[in-house]
Please model this.
Amino acid sequence: MLRKILTYTAVISAALVFCGYFTAASVLSARGSREEMCTGIAVRILDSAANRFVSPAEIEGIVTSSELNPVGQLRSTADLCAIEDLLESRSAIKHCDACIGKDGILRVSITQRRPLIRIQTSNGAFYIDDTGYIFPWVSTFTSYVPVVSGHIPVKLEEGYRGVPEKSDRKWVSQMISLANYLDRHPVWNAQIQQIYIEPGGDMVFYTVVGDQKIIFGEIDDFDYKFAKLKAFYTGIVPVYGWERYSAVNLKFSDQIVCTRRHTHDKSNRI
Model:
């Protein structure tokens, strides 16, 4: 009798152990499954203080509305490279990093393009960034950079994005050099209100202070030509006043050619 009791006790104990084991295994398996899932998206715009072309909500919307949306799926099935390519295909996004942490959150870090100049063409407005990449102007956000209009020598189709062909690349590189120069010289950057390209290729400035047409000429010799423009403001304007001249030509070596207003004697060489 005692032996039977001991046998039944052993069987029941073994059954309880097995039940406990399978119950614990099921719980751990379910918990592990939950931990393997992607449960959400967190977006960080690394340069949001400088540019606001895209927002975290917009980035999250792009991912969740695509077939690459990993939320609710196993982390192992998420195609992070494809998600990065998807976001980098947006013209204002320069670089994207995507990863999924142990908490199941897809973390996306965005670096936007840094526009240096904006050009107005017959097919719309475009930004040129610091790498020479051209992309369409974004209506939801305007970056405060110099605006160039007139006879732009680069032919762009509506919605164009990319690096221009070699024939146009020289002019784009020159404009980047000018934009970088203005960026390093805040006084000139603040003074130049508009840049116009004339039919022959000469660059003309229209300024905030004074209504003279500043004929800069070819896009070169920045230090030399801006030194002459400074000489006009500091040496000529105090003597003759702001209204005497309608145009200031910086194209010629060792001289400033100023055009007088309302007179047949059109220019004074200084």
Remarks:
- Residues 2-35 form the longest helix (34 residues).
